[in-house]
């Protein structure tokens, strides 16, 4: 179980904690604001070094509201990266090497704290990545897929009260077009988030498919909702690390997820770096 956080107190405003975290990041990195943020899921961790020059690296658990990652394959640091764009201009990217998953039982406020902190640093765009199960046998492990929509099957929302946010284009069409300009062969799909931590059953995978999903996993959708509430543009990219239960002929394991991520890491990291330089 992760250590306590000010977000655990329901009387605490989570946006106050996000602003405190942003101020801490600015003070420790010497970068007053960031333009884009990246949440790096399983397999995506090598992208930061390819995006640009790492200005500063902070232990994530020392930033207000954050704790150490609970999942193997996630980094325990947050980095500020100087990104030089093709036109010679400079942007700064905040790279979050880990995320809190809903299945950790720590509540939705912790799950979306990274996204809210990114918005508080000044970011206008967030890139959400993950490793996931694929419902299409033609999408072999190692295949990156752009997210065009999601199905939230967690029964949870990071929003409270009468907070109505339009989800029509939760994953920004303009950013998907930009990604396809880098790699025209990128397929698009719908991501279904389950709570976890158990993997989905074959019946649950079939249900997700009936609902329109192409991918299943345990992250991203709640973060995307919080990002849209904060006014951020969202680019979502999944890495198919395994075929989903009932599609695969073999039992699922986290070791398989890590192995697929490691094998695809250099290629997908290069893809993500090229995309980010154009954002």
TrEMBL record:
<feature type="binding site">
    <location>
        <position position="42"/>
    </location>
    <ligand>
        <name>phosphate</name>
    </ligand>
</feature>
<feature type="binding site">
    <location>
        <position position="242"/>
    </location>
    <ligand>
        <name>a purine D-ribonucleoside</name>
    </ligand>
</feature>
<feature type="binding site">
    <location>
        <position position="74"/>
    </location>
    <ligand>
        <name>phosphate</name>
    </ligand>
</feature>
<dbReference type="InterPro" id="IPR000845">
    <property type="entry name" value="Nucleoside_phosphorylase_d"/>
</dbReference>
<dbReference type="GO" id="GO:0005737">
    <property type="term" value="C:cytoplasm"/>
</dbReference>
<dbReference type="InterPro" id="IPR035994">
    <property type="entry name" value="Nucleoside_phosphorylase_sf"/>
</dbReference>
<feature type="binding site">
    <location>
        <position position="200"/>
    </location>
    <ligand>
        <name>a purine D-ribonucleoside</name>
    </ligand>
</feature>
<comment type="function">
    <text>The purine nucleoside phosphorylases catalyze the phosphorolytic breakdown of the N-glycosidic bond in the beta-(deoxy)ribonucleoside molecules, with the formation of the corresponding free purine bases and pentose-1-phosphate. Cleaves guanosine, inosine, 2'-deoxyguanosine and 2'-deoxyinosine.</text>
</comment>
<keyword id="KW-0808">Transferase</keyword>
<dbReference type="InterPro" id="IPR011269">
    <property type="entry name" value="PUNP"/>
</dbReference>
<dbReference type="GO" id="GO:0009116">
    <property type="term" value="P:nucleoside metabolic process"/>
</dbReference>
<dbReference type="InterPro" id="IPR011268">
    <property type="entry name" value="Purine_phosphorylase"/>
</dbReference>
<dbReference type="GO" id="GO:0004731">
    <property type="term" value="F:purine-nucleoside phosphorylase activity"/>
</dbReference>
<feature type="domain" description="Nucleoside phosphorylase">
    <location>
        <begin position="36"/>
        <end position="277"/>
    </location>
</feature>
<feature type="binding site">
    <location>
        <position position="131"/>
    </location>
    <ligand>
        <name>phosphate</name>
    </ligand>
</feature>
<comment type="subunit">
    <text>Homotrimer.</text>
</comment>
<feature type="binding site">
    <location>
        <position position="219"/>
    </location>
    <ligand>
        <name>phosphate</name>
    </ligand>
</feature>
<keyword id="KW-0328">Glycosyltransferase</keyword>
<comment type="similarity">
    <text>Belongs to the PNP/MTAP phosphorylase family.</text>
</comment>
<protein>
    <recommendedName>
        <fullName>Purine nucleoside phosphorylase</fullName>
        <ecNumber>2.4.2.1</ecNumber>
    </recommendedName>
</protein>
<dbReference type="Pfam" id="PF01048">
    <property type="entry name" value="PNP_UDP_1"/>
</dbReference>
<comment type="pathway">
    <text>Purine metabolism; purine nucleoside salvage.</text>
</comment>
<feature type="binding site">
    <location>
        <begin position="99"/>
        <end position="101"/>
    </location>
    <ligand>
        <name>phosphate</name>
    </ligand>
</feature>
């Amino acid at each position: 179980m992760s250590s306590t956080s000010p977000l655990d107190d329901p009387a605490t405003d989570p946006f106050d904690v996000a602003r405190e975290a942003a101020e801490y990041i600015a003070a420790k990195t010497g970068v007053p604001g960031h333009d884009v943020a990246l949440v790096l899921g399983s397999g995506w961790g090598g992208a930061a070094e390819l995006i640009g020059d790492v200005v500063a690296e902070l232990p994530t658990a020392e930033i207000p509201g954050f704790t150490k990652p609970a999942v193997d394959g996630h980094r325990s640091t947050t980095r500020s990266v100087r990104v030089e764009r093709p036109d010679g201009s400079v942007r700064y990217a905040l790279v979050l090497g880990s995320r809190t998953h809903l299945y950790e039982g720590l509540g939705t406020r912790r799950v979306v704290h990274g996204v809210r902190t990114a918005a508080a640093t000044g970011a206008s765009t967030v890139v959400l990545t993950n490793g996931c199960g694929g419902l299409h046998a033609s999408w072999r492990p190692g295949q990156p897929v752009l997210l065009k929509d999601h199905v939230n099957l967690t029964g949870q929302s990071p929003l409270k009260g009468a907070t109505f946010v339009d989800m029509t284009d939760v994953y920004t069409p303009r950013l998907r077009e930009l990604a396809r300009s880098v790699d025209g062969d990128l397929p698009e799909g719908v991501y279904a988030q389950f709570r976890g931590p158990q993997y989905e059953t074959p019946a649950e995978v079939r249900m997700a498919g009936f609902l329109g999903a192409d991918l299943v996993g345990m992250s991203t959708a709640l973060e995307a909702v919080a990002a849209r509430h904060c006014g951020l543009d969202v680019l979502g990219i999944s890495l198919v690390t395994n075929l989903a239960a009932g599609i695969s002929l073999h039992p699922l394991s986290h070791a398989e997820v890590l192995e697929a991520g490691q094998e695809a890491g250099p290629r997908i990291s290069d893809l993500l770096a090229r995309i980010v330089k154009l954002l």
